[in-house]
Amino acid sequence: MRSFGIIFYCALLSGLSCLYTNTEEPTSTIRLGILQDEFPRQPSHADPRELSVFLQNEGYTVSFLSADQLADETALRSDPMDILILPYGATFPFAARNSFISYLKNGGAFVSMGGYAFDDLVVKRGNQWERLDTIPPDHSISGRRGKPGDWMRLQAEQIPIFDPTYPFKRTHTLGSDTQSPLLLDAWSENGTFDGFPATAMTGSNNPVFPKQYGRWYPLVTAYDRYGKSRGSVFSLVLHHDGPYKGSAWAFSGVTNENLFSNAHPRMLQTLSAAIRAIHLRTFLISTVTETDEHGVSTLVSTLANYGKNQQSVALESWIGKNALAKETVSLSRGNVNVIRHAIPHELLHNGYIPIHVSVAAGQFRDSIEHGFYQPADNDDALDDFTFQNNYMRINGKPTFLFGTNQTGMVWFSAKENPATWERDLVRMRDHGLRMLRVLHFSPYAARGYEGHGGHSSMDLAGNPPARLIRQTDDLVAMCARNGVALMLTLHDWLPVTLSDPELDAQKKWARFWADRYHGQTHVFFDIQNEPSVQPDDTADTRNRWNEFLKNRYANDSALHEAWGAFAPVEPLGEIPCNPGPDVWENPRQVDYNRFRAHLLERWIDENMNGIREGSSVIPASVGFLQSHGSAEKLFATSRLDFCNSHYHGPIEPFASITKLIDRRFRGQGFAVGEFGAWDAHEARSHGRFADETTASIRHFLAVGHDTFGMGGCFALNWDWKDFDDCLFPWGLSYAQDYVPKDWLTAYRNMSLFFRAFQPVYEDPGIYLLIPDSHRLGGQSDRVYAAIDNAIHLLFACHIDFNVINEKSLDDLPNVARTIFWPIPYCPADAVFEKVLAFVRKGGNLYFSGDLSFDEWRRPSRTSRFKKFGLPLAQGASPFQTTIPRAIPDFIVRKVGEGQVCYLPAPIEWKPLAEWEGNPYAEFLTRVEESGIFVEPNDPRLHLFSIPETNKNLIYTLFRCEKDENLREYRIQTPGGEVSLALAGFQTGLIETNREGALFALEGTGFCRGRDLCVEILGHAMLQSLDGFPLEQSQFFSIYPTQAGTIRFRSETIRNPWLVIGEMRKGQWIPFEELEPEYDKGTIQIDIDEDRAACIVLCMEKARKPEAVQALTSLVKKGNSNYGQIR
Question: Which pTM was predicted?
Answer without folding.
Answer: 0.95
